[in-house]
Amino acid sequence: MVTDIGLIAVLLAFASGIYAIAASVHGARARREDWVTSARNAALIIAPLLTLSALTIIYSNLTGNYRLEYTAHVSSSATPTVLKITALWGGQNGSLLFWSWLMSIFVTGVMLRKWDNNRDLMPYVIAVTEVIQVFFLALVVLFANPFAKLWQTPTGEIGGAVFGASTLFTTLSSIGFGGIAQTLFAPPGSIPFTPADGQGLAPLLRHPGMVAHPPFLYLGFVGFTIPYAFAMAALLTGKTNDAWIRTTRRWTLMAWLFLGIGLLLGMRWAYDVLGWGGYWGWDAVENAALMPWISGTAFLHSVMIQEKRGMLKVWNMFLIILTFAQVILGTFITRTGVISSVHSFARSSIGVPFLAFTGLMLVGSVWLLLTRLDDLKSENKLDSLLSREAAFVAQNALFLIINLAVAIGTYFPIFSELIVNNKITVGAPYYDHVVGPLLAPLILLMGVAPLVSWRAASPQALGRTALTIPGPVTVVALVILFAVGIRNPWALLGMALIVYAGTVTVVEYARGVRARHRSPGEGWPMALWNLIGRNRRRYGGYLVHTGIVLMGVGVIGTHLYQQETQQALSIGQTLAIGNYQVTFRRLELVPSGQSDKKIISARVEVSEGGKPLMTLRPFQEQYTNGERMTPPALMGSMKEDLYVLLGGWEADGSLATFKVFINPLVNWLWLGGIVFILGTLVAAWPNVAEERRAWSVERRAMAPAAVRTR
Amino acid sequence: MRAKIIVGGLVVVAAVVYLIVSSIGSSAQYYLTVKELREKGQTMTGRNLRVSGFVVGDSIAYNPQLSSLSFDIVNAHDELSSTVKVNTLKIVYTGPKPDLLQHEAQAIAEGKLNPDGTFVANNLLLKCPTRYEDQLPTPTPTH
Questions:
Q1: pLDDT average, residue stretch A398-412
Q2: Is A199 close to B132, i.e. CB distance below 8 A?
Q3: Could you tell me which of A46, A166, B84, B94 has the fewest CB atoms within 10 Å of its CB?
């Protein structure tokens, strides 16, 4: 079977990973360059091997090889071709292989970079990344193997196992390795089993957003292993200068960007598919992906202080350890379902190894950090509470508090079940009450901080730049908002902060462009282009801030001003919501083009103040396996989305129930998301000349120190 | 400056702790199975609850005109087939009938317990019984 080749490839990759760890550690300790090179080659072979094994799974899904347990789960004859391919990450076992595969590609990227500047970190970077790689491959091989085939036991039960019937099953089970035994061997006497057809992906997972969402999330998760590995390598070698931060800056940004895109796609998927009118439900799985993004954001900001002022070194180490720990926990939570019930933890085969790995990783990293505390002393002190440094510290504190609050809410059911034996969950209101107020000072800081100078700012000068233009603009905006009838104090406060932070960013851009226009005499568009091009990090960062501001507008609109109604309408009857009238015209069966589903669609006419606007067709998909899906029909503008759902109907089609939402300003959220992506790309775009300059400065600074120690 | 930082930090910590504690208090939901709810009985009346169980297909009643829905859930999946259902709970809900509401589906209802023993849900979460995970193909071997 083709997948046997994939299985062999995974086993080879697993062995290469173990060899790479051993060879790199030996090479580093014995100072043997040839061993390090050998370790690097072993690490480089993993990506091609895993590519091959992932391809065999895709091939199996495409050809309908239902003998393979995984293919029988996620593929079926009715599954469209694209989804057969993306089913590689549609189920647990495949997605763990996918995770490992993406990780090997990242590692390859790191291995192929130029190592001239920090060759001594290399063996440890290999060792750390390969420990993580090997752990995930161990999960794939021993606990969640996508290459398992189906077997039928003598008692008629169906189960998956890699190697088929063997007495080893009984032996391993009897000595307490039941999970591994089940993955690898079928009970004695089992015979091969092939179902007639597979089950196929759940309909909810067939949306394009769900196809693209996991890869981006995983890319983000996996990407954070690179800065983590460099941080650990810096601690292990004692080379705790800024080299690890500078080397991984772009990797971190990309990981952060991918995670951000993953979150955005997940939100869009929820909005388009789940049909509850919102996009973020503070679900444990969502939070699990959000938390590393939050601590990663704090990290991206605080490393700037270390680069500029040599401060917060321990803090940065702590942040990257925390972020990576949350990445591993995030993968763990999404894959084991431990939050919905502690009991599912026991049932999940990968629960125990995951928890053990997370624990070891945390203890090891923190212990390493503690042994190096002396090397990580700050080179400078905080000079003033009114300085860029202080603003960054405050911002970091806020991010971490938000992270902690989300963590408390997410893990609360586990703690309460363990401690008081009562599972208590906290829902969306908890997060709204706690996180909402904390976002206000964060947005204020986002506006003010870029204006505060390093070391110590003068209050008068700051007052001038911070208030001259943004102050009046904010006041005018508030007056306008009040005049159009906005009275909710939270909305007014939030919008004021957003307008303020947005204006500061625009003014910063304008100031820079004007300066370039004046002195080098560039035309306006050229001045803007060069301004961003010459200082991508700064102006890319401002662009990200602009994206966040735009998203904030959408969040305030949908959160505080969403309208909702629900009504059963007979043909020709109308419901009213906001200024809109929604009239039910008829119910129809539309061809779906897929044999396993039918689509029932309602035709509704939307008008505003009696003026017809548009015909919408909300529908329900009914799958032959009994599943249903009700996506909304949307009429959108920058002002608001009209979000119409077909809830149910009478069999004769004379009556249908509709649920209708008005989501004000929601499209600002998606627009902000796009701006956020663009800004991060600008900030991450390589600037070769600038980086070479930074490295040579570093080397000059290092040279005398190196002489001294010798 | 150190004193300022410490005082400022303490104020912030106190505010955040207050925010978290008060919000947990007001939004805490007890997560119970039908059996646990029956055991705790009337002490749970009026509290924010989240109850999980399995849907009894025959009991689903929906009036599209009023958008009123009611159905029974049982504690465990194997109780669905038994004739005497010990731990059942009647759920009433106003809103469109969820797509996944069907026999054997796992349901989580959020809401409050009425003194008459019915559960008034303001939110329903359903998990389809035939999700691809944790479920193996039915044994219909090919030749």
A1: 93
A2: yes
A3: B84
